[in-house]
């Protein structure tokens, strides 16, 4: 979190040294907690976390506890409204909930928003891309992760804020500032419109969540900078409340870092937007949504409103043979490709460079009738041929490491010298093919696009699959 951009504000002039110190701790806290609790999430944002919960039913929150939360909500809502520059259109209901009540809400919300089939598809994709071990069970892990150490949440459906009844109130005021920012967002921008995001573009959905959470995290940061004593109480409460999540430590890296993305990268993005035009620019973003994780990672592409290239893929069920079905059809985006690459390259700067220049993509996931039959095809577009080449080389390198027993069966390269712009700028065509323990793998480069196919069954016609993909 780059708080240098915040420290230039007049309202923070008296808190400069404190804010610098707090900002580092806040960034660490967000990194530790964003994926392990819903303290920084509205209900409709599924923020996985898994850990065993006490089986005994907790006692109902006491009347004094509820009264204290209600009174504190009124005070913090007013202060947050002033910081965020969003008027309070209606009071926000609030109260305390027991751990059992919050657990019940989380499970109900998860079941409403994510079907078992969608969970299954995500699990297979994670495993096929090498982002999760073969024994990993995604749904059960998510259920546990979602019910571990919840501190509070704002529910757009009920338009109500709830704070966990087992957490000391004074130290949770920054949490309340974050969640009450969500309440203000809801009153002005209608957060319920984000609940049922259209299927098929998870990358754009991630970008929208980064706007929502980045906005609230920035407001929370300003709240803590304005109230350093409260911020210190918050940090102390985290240290003394055993908030560290064992499950988030056990989570595959791709899951862990994707959970943190809306808060960490989102707050950096919101800060850039804020610096450019104040809170008015941040508010305007709810009408002009960020369209991709690329726009979050590179705010200048949001300012230029660089629209992602729309890519389609044909249906491969006939080509794959009897028993195959398509179980997912979506967009990865720059952030996911960074994670896919770096899982095996383990070189963050190299992976980020290779994923940068993303212009669009589409992937399709297929499952066969036999155990272990999984085929994934990805067609990607890049800003330039140089960007495509860099990604192609990185993915080929990643493939060697992803499949340690892989054997190269074909490597071809060709330059179309008939291109109008001459040989130096002509489309390069290159193709790598491997035989692996999980089926055949092909990575092809054609000009500014790269095609990837993994898990190609032995009976399938690779060239036919490739031709169909490029059409």
Question: What would a concise description of this structure say?
Answer:
With 471 residues, the chain is of the alpha+beta class. Helix content is 50%, strand content 15%.
For the termini, the CA-CA separation is 43 Å
Shape: elongated
Based on secondary structure, the structural category is alpha+beta
The chain-level mean pLDDT equals 83
Provide the spatial order of strands within the biggest beta sheet: 4-5-6-10-9-8-7
Helix tally?
18
Strand portion, in percent? 15-25%
Give a written overview of the molecule.
It is a single chain. This protein has 471 residues and is of the alpha+beta class. The chain is 50% helix and 15% strand. The protein is built from 18 helices and 10 strands. Strands 4-5-6-10-9-8-7 form a 7-stranded antiparallel β-sheet, with helices on both faces. It has a 3-stranded mixed β-sheet with strand order 1-3-2. A hairpin with a 4-residue loop joins strand 2 and strand 3 (160-164). It is elongated, with a radius of gyration of 24 Å. Residues 1-59 and 417-425 have low confidence and may be disordered.
Q: What's the SSE blueprint?
A:
Blueprint: H1 4-7, H2 16-33, H3 63-84, E1 93-97, H4 99-113, H5 116-128, H6 138-146, E2 152-155, E3 160-164, H7 173-189, H8 202-226, H9 228-240, H10 246-250, H11 253-284, H12 293-297, H13 299-303, H14 317-320, E4 325-330, H15 333-345, H16 348-355, E5 358-367, E6 374-382, H17 385-402, E7 407-415, E8 428-436, E9 439-446, E10 449-456, H18 462-470
Parallel strand pairs: 1-3
Antiparallel strand pairs: 2-3, 4-5, 5-6, 6-10, 7-8, 8-9, 9-10
Helix pairs in contact: 2-9, 3-7, 3-8, 7-8, 8-9, 8-11, 11-15, 15-16, 15-17, 16-17
């Amino acid at each position: 979190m780059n708080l240098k951009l915040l420290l230039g504000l007049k309202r923070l002039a008296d808190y400069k040294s404190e804010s610098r110190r707090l900002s580092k701790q806040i960034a660490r806290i967000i990194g530790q907690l964003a994926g392990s609790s819903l303290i920084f999430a509205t209900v409709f944002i599924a923020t996985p976390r898994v850990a065993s919960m006490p089986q005994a039913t907790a006692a109902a929150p006491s009347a004094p506890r509820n009264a204290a939360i209600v009174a504190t909500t009124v005070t913090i809502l007013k202060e947050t409204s002033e910081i965020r520059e969003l008027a309070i259109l209606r009071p926000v209901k609030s109260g305390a909930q027991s751990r059992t009540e919050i657990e019940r809400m989380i499970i109900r919300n998860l079941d409403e928003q994510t079907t078992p089939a969608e969970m299954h598809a995500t699990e297979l994709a994670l495993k096929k891309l090498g982002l999760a071990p073969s024994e990993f069970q995604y749904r059960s892990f998510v259920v546990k992760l979602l019910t571990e150490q919840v501190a509070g949440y704002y529910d757009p459906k009920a338009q109500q804020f709830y704070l966990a009844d087992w957490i000391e109130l004074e130290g949770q005021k920054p949490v309340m500032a974050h969640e009450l920012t969500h309440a203000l967002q809801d009153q002005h921008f209608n957060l319920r419109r984000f609940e049922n995001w259209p299927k098929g573009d998870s990358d754009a959905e991630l970008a929208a969540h980064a706007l929502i959470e980045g906005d609230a995290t920035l407001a929370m940061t300003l709240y803590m900078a304005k109230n350093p004593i409260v911020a210190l109480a918050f940090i102390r409460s985290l240290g003394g409340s055993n908030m560290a999540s064992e499950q988030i430590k056990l989570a595959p890296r791709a899951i862990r870092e994707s959970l943190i993305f809306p808060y960490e990268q989102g707050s950096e993005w919101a800060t850039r937007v804020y610096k450019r035009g104040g809170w008015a620019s941040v508010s305007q973003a709810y009408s002009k949504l960020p369209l991709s994780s690329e726009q979050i990672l590179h705010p200048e592409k949001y300012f230029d409103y660089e629209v992602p290239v729309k890519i389609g893929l044909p249906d491969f069920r006939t080509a794959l043979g009897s028993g195959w079905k398509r179980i997912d059809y979506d967009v990865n985006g720059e952030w996911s490709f960074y994670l896919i690459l770096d899982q095996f390259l383990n070189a963050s700067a190299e992976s980020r460079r290779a994923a940068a220049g993303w212009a669009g993509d589409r992937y399709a996931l297929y499952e066969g009738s036999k155990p272990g039959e999984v085929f994934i095809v990805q067609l990607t577009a890049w800003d330039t041929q140089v960007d495509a080449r860099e990604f192609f080389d990185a993915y080929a390198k990643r493939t060697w490491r992803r499949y340690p027993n892989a054997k190269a069966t074909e490597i071809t390269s060709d330059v179309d010298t008939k291109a109008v712009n001459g040989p130096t700028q002509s489309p390069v065509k290159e193709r790598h093919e491997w035989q692996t323990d999980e089926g055949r793998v092909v990575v092809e480069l054609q000009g500014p696009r790269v095609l990837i196919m993994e898990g190609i069954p032995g009976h399938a016609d690779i060239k036919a699959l490739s031709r169909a993909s490029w059409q």
